[in-house]
């Protein structure tokens, strides 16, 4: 099951309604700022997970050498 699997059950009208509500709540000027912040957060999360994965792989390599 995908993370955004619930979108499959939504129709076009529902998605348009959600977009309009978001536009009304935040305004057209604020949405790009929110998207940029979300993108930065996702990028930092991915970098952190890559660092952790690399550390784990290096630890496993060190254990195999011993």
TrEMBL record:
Transmembrane segments annotated in the record for this chain: 6-26
Entry's localization field: Cell membrane
GO terms classed as biological process: protein transport by the Tat complex
Main localization category: membrane
Keywords assigned: Cell membrane, Membrane, Protein transport, Translocation, Transmembrane, Transmembrane helix, Transport
Any single GO CC term annotated in Swiss-Prot or TrEMBL for this entry: TAT protein transport complex
Gene3D superfamilies to which the protein is assigned, alphabetical: 1.20.5.3310
The UniProt record lists the keyword Metal-binding: no
Family: Belongs to the TatA/E family.
HAMAP family xrefs: TatA_E
Full protein name: Sec-independent protein translocase protein TatA
């Amino acid at each position: 099951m995908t993370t955004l699997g619930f979108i499959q059950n939504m129709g076009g009208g529902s998605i348009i309604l959600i977009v309009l509500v978001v536009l009304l709540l935040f305004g057209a000027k604020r949405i790009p700022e929110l998207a940029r912040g979300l993108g930065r957060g996702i990028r930092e999360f991915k970098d952190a997970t890559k660092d952790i994965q690399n550390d784990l792989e290096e630890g496993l390599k060190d254990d195999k050498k011993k």
